[in-house]
Specification:
The structure is a homodimer.
Chain A lengths: L13 E4 L10 H10 L5 E5 L8 H11 L4 E4 L11 H8 L3 E4 L4 H8 L3 H11 L3 E5 L1 H5 L3 E6 L10 E5 L7 E5 L7 H10 L4 E5 L3 E5 L4 E6 L2 E6 L5 E2 L12 E2 L2 E6 L3 E3 L4 E3 L2 H11 L1
Parallel strand pairs in A: 1-5, 2-3, 2-4, 4-5, 8-9
Antiparallel strand pairs in A: 1-10, 6-7, 9-12, 10-11, 11-16, 12-15, 13-14, 16-17
Helix pairs in contact in A: 3-5
Chain lengths: ~280, ~280
């Protein structure tokens, strides 16, 4: 369960990234994350647990150093015992930002889930520390995590497997590599199980900066697909045999790109002022 | 997300029942629920949404009346629009206890999820109202709900489908008809995805009375199977192909029956005083 925000401070940003974010030339998303955390004076911790590649942690250390962050450190959390080590907890305790790399989200949930590291990240995020994750790292951020599923645009009964995630927020369910891997169907299926959450499909090199005020700002070169099932008129989810398409009536859908924003508690989309002005010019 | 407990009051009990509870002769579980809610002066609301049988609501009205409850009422919530009706919300607002019948838990989550009725039940439970559910109604109580899955004692990758539930508690994942339908495997699989929660497998005619002090008391003729994965040493969950058995090392298991109790925050089991005394006699 998400920790309670301290009465003095504000919750930190939660930043799911759709994977394959630009890292060298014009790394808009990573640069914005660094700025949020305090710029060159920031202390950033990288958690490469999701990845099977040995050099993922080192690689992100270099990337953040190229963005002028002096204090960046990848911590190796390969076992659940690693997630109880006091020097790991001390490092996290001092961080301004935490970045979870891509890979396999089940490796994150099975290794970190229920350990002091997971509890500390939740507590620090509630106290103002910013937490970003890309690809598998993005999926893991939420209470309800998409663990795996099938491709395709049509929701089908049983096509997606949910698992408990890190639990920084309960309001959204995140899917990533969204357009690139044709994941509309599995996100719709996940939402149809219980239409209380908002679905956020994130394209590659795209990020949702979810602030403490419940506004999401879109950044990057792709789009956010927002699925709001709160006004669902009809759902056949409970009576559809496995593998068959699920009838769903009355879903609201928004496609948002860089500069647009969305309020997850008010369920309200706001295109950027620049886009609204341009649209007015055309009709004027 | 679970509502916050009001500073003045205590959270109400959360009472998952394993299904097939005794209803006529010696209905221990239902009688205890009625007592909790205030006895014959209690106001109890029955939600028969999970069931496809037309008379489930009326049937439970009769059962509770036979237990001397004068003010019992089944409310018909067949559509999401029903879950916004003001007379329904008024009825729930006045209830001392809410009882969710069995059937299909996906019918509960797709119909009630994200509606004012679900929000109100969470808020009332946080303010002291007791909420019980049997079978599908039990599965639905938690944040992470087992929607469906396969039988068998061995955890296998992909054998269980989780979905967001009502969200009264995030600490446990519940499975019911536990011994009768051979569900150890699917509960272990659900927990292996993220070992932060405690698994509670509930036999038929058995209930877990989860109090505001985080103690569960067992009632009824069967057993509670408690699965505590918090000290898991090894899990192959993230690397096991679909359908294959998942290696899990270091799970703690408790079997508890009537009178025994378990603390979900301390992860501590306590056999009843009577059982401890009897065991002493045998060794004495």
């Amino acid at each position: 369960m998400a920790s309670k925000v301290s009465p003095d401070g504000e919750r930190g940003f939660i930043v799911p990234v759709g994977g394959a974010e630009r890292k060298i030339r014009d790394p808009t998303i990573l640069r914005r994350f660094v700025e949020l955390c305090g710029g060159r004076g920031a202390s950033i911790v990288v958690i490469p647990t999701a990845s099977q590649a040995k050099d993922t942690g080192r690689r992100y250390e270099r990337i953040f150093r190229d963005l002028d962050v002096r204090d960046v450190r990848a911590i190796s959390l390969e076992t659940r015992a690693d997630c109880e080590r006091s020097e790991v907890l001390d490092t996290l305790e001092r961080a301004d930002g935490v970045f979870l790399t891509g890979g396999n989200q089940l490796r994150l949930s099975t290794t970190l889930g229920g350990t002091p590291v997971a509890q500390l990240i939740r507590r620090r995020n509630a106290a103002g520390v910013h937490v970003a994750g890309t690809s598998a790292g993005a999926a893991f951020l939420c209470q309800h995590m998409i663990a795996f599923g099938d491709e395709g645009p049509t929701p089908r009964s049983g096509m997606v497997t949910l698992a408990p995630g890190l639990g920084l927020t309960n309001s959204v369910i995140i899917d990533q590599h969204f357009r690139q891997r044709d994941r509309l169907g599995r996100l719709l299926t996940a939402l149809a199980y219980n239409p209380f959450a908002t679905g956020i499909g994130i394209d590659e090199d795209t990020a949702a900066f979810l602030g403490p005020d419940d506004w999401i700002e879109v950044l990057g070169s792709g789009a956010l697909t927002i699925i709001d099932p709160s006004k669902l008129d009809f759902s056949a989810m409970d009576s559809t045999p496995e593998g068959e398409p699920v009838s769903l009536v009355g879903i609201r859908l928004h496609i948002l790109s860089a500069g647009d924003s969305y309020n997850i508690s008010k369920r309200q989309a706001a295109p950027s002022a620049a886009k609204i002005a341009k649209a007015r010019e055309r009709t004027g």
